[in-house]
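Recap from last week: sequence in, structure out.
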Amino acid sequence: MSYIKPKFRHPDLPTNRIGLTEASYEGAISTLCAGCGHDSISAGIVRACWELDLPPHRVAKLSGIGCSSKSPTYFLNQAHGFNTVHGRMPSVATGANVANRDLTYFGVSGDGDSASIGMGQFAHVVRRNLNMVYVVENNGCYGLTKGQGSATQDQGSASRKGAPNPYSPIDLVGVALQLGATFVARSFSGDKEQLVPLIKAAIKHKGFALIDVVSPCVTFNNHPGSTKSYDYTRDHVETGVVMDFVPYQEEIKAKYEPGTTEEVILHDGSAIHLHKAESSYDPSDRLSAINKVQEYKDDGKILTGLIYLDPVAAEFHEMMDTSEMPFNQMGDTELCPGKECLNRINSSFQ
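Predicted structure tokens:
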């Protein structure tokens, strides 16, 4: 079965300052599970880019491997895009950023893509303060490979097979703060009122901007013992063709005020507690931010909102004195300056 997004749009749709409707920032129809929080994140990126009047062709979106890394297909179809190998998106983002600093860079990753195989690359792109928005769509599992727990899964949390996770989780927010990230935020995929402003702020930030978004997986909650699980059904019926059907799930949404805690019931019946930072919270103190994240974590809560911001730190291009002219605008003289120039560069490293 194929799906085609209709091209007809109401002629009176509102436009932004560059004359584009919000539909101009959309992408292909999503093939993710119905109700997946990742689609809400994509919608948040669409809304943020439209409200900021970004020309779509001046945006570059990059990703690795995973459900999260499929989502750039579903927004900004007129933007540049590169789907890299698992965990290696930061390297490609760095190379592209060096070649053309004039684009707005979106890196979309997942908890497996960043906190496991890509952990080393994540650490270095943070400390280099590369000018990009780095969105982690964090669902605590590997959705493309049947829902194994990822490195961000909470200790004691049961997998789809019912076994509790024995390991301490990696908190990418805490890691980023320790590594010197200059913009750190966390949100929930179902809280559009909080997520969209955070994305807009991250786009405008000069340097590396991390947004860790809690995005529940709607599919892998069919634990053993459930009579609605796939395995139970296959064992008790005669089937002509073995196939999986992913049932529709309602998207989880949350709306709560700053300084309050909201209990969110996930699709498997478990609960997470989100705490929105107080309006008096000071995000300019790194040590305080680290302590605050740990404080709420120890209390079984997840702190959301803008957690840390350093608006004056030097970003990658300032530190490395990279070319202001994009490589694709240079001629042979700039790209191939000759043997003498190369010798001078080599001598400078001796």
